[in-house]
Amino acid sequence: MTKPVYAIDPETLLISSAAAREAAAPAAEAYQSQEPYAHGSFDNFLPPEILERVKEELKELPEAESSFNRAQEKLKTSYIPERLPPYTRSLFYALNSRPFIAFLEELTGIDGLIPDPYFIGAGIHVVANGGHLDIHADFNHHGKMNLERRLNVLIYLNKGWKEEWGGSFEVWDKNMNGKVKSFVPLFNRMVCFNTSSDSWHGNPETVNHPEGEPRMSIALYYYTASWDETRKSHSTLFKPRPGTADQRDKLEARHATMRNLLPPFLYRRLAPRLRRLGI
Which of 48, 56, 129, 236 sits between 20 and 30 A of 248, alpha carbons compared? Predict the structure, then answer.
């Protein structure tokens, strides 16, 4: 059997930082040279028995922390690690630990990566049949820690998934002229990519599994202490694909206008309430 890329112990979920860096080194040059932004895909990423245990635990999920069902992100739910079953929760903590940070720093060339102890936006992501996530660039600022978002890691949990069932992860060029690459969300495939305000990506093709199974993934985000007052924070920026029925994100356009017109303290107070009301 082929050795996993990131060969942590399935019982303890441990690996040395030196071994983690060694695992990333062979892929670093290829990852960092990808266009239109640095990215990579790694099959057989973890020892498969780890994700088998995760899938078994996730047969029963708690109430979702967030649910989205609008034109840009349809039938998508998210579950934060602290409310997930114990082994799955421990895997998230292992992927937020020093050895995995060492792996990511070696792979990406980004020094001083910081994991998010709050797992804002991260966790288990589920897209039900009929759902999708349009092409977008992610929020760029962790307000609670005042950090710049730099990196996304996605690990897929879908056994035997076929391209025609939708849900593939797509990389788009910076001018949104066309798709550059596409990755089927296969079991134990990890996709990692650098994030910026024009790192356009998503899974816009509707999930349509013949037996109604959802598309499921592990999602984690990483940051650096490089934010400063010259930067402008933004939430998720959606972009319609040319020649499709994708819709412009009117909600975020309204909030961008309010953010520019209102005093910052007032917008910060009003925005969460308005979002809950869909305004």
Answer: 129
